[in-house]
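Data availability (excerpt). The following record was deposited with the supplementary files.
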Amino acid sequence: MTVAVGPASADLTADWLRLNLTPGVGPRTGRQLVAACGGIEELWASSSAELKCIDGVGDKLAAILKKQSKGSAEKILSACARAGIEPLSAGDTRYPVALLQSDDAPLVLFCRGDVQALNHPRLLAIVGARKASSEGRLMTRRWSRYLSANGIGIVSGMAYGIDAAAHGGALEGDAPTIAVLGCGLSTAFSPEQIRQIDAVAAQGCVVSEFLPETGARPENFPRRNRIIAGLASATLVMEADIRSGSLITARLAGDYGREVLAVPGSVLSGNHAGCHQLLRDGACLVESPDDILRSMRWQACSGEKRTNYEPTNDNEAKIMAALERQILHIDALAEHCDLTVSKISPILLGLELIGVVEALPGSRYTLGGA
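Predicted structure:
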């Protein structure tokens, strides 16, 4: 398929959007039509007879194509300009190269922020449950922050739970973060969503394949998931039950030839059943963000550590060692350290005040820091 040698002109973008708006033409069919005609301009210059010579194009589709006007596309482009939305067509060299490798890549993406972030050389998708546990959200935020500090761009869907934690952690790092939405960029957002969109756009890009005024509907999200999987070199599932939409994203990533990573968890709840299924199906098991860097052969570029605090006595050392790889209830922590709850409580409070440990809901504790 012929593509532009630079950012697409407004006319070329309108041509691609015109194709995107044509009834009965999806991403695969659209790209096949452009390839068969030798370019998007050549497609629209073709006669009905020439169009019907293309494999799969009959009288009905040829008639629809010839009837499709450019006016609707131009109106949408004008509305995008007023709203600060940048349409990015498949004929624009700034279109994400990784996504373009998928045969169902959208013909047009609508973007807010830095579109160059879509071609960041190391992108990792992080997905998981909307109703994630506090531990899952905490771990996701820390891992995302650490990975972003090491130059890894984070892609997610800006939903509640794991997605929000992934973007939140990435925004505390240096690399771009990309949010892929299941609705248009000009739909009615809550004040909280507007703040999230603004924050992500300032450090990366917010993307949607849906027309700007399109509302969020259940059928949009599987389509959204294929863009998340297609943008990234790998997809990491942090926490997901067996019915989670995150498994759709992971399956799509595998279909696209991308790495699939999953974090194991307790078998005492269903929160990790989806991750365990992925592991049985061959996903790479990871237990730390460094496992991800090693698995993807991404060299770390930061010396960030979990904590630089040196314990001042044996009890502090015992507590920090116990919390190094797990979250513990205060009773279990006290037993592990051979201390009473009354003895360990003031030690934990002191460590919490200086950020060495972090208190979680339900009298549980974990190490602070990255």
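Summary of structural features: The first strand starts at residue 86 and ends at 89.
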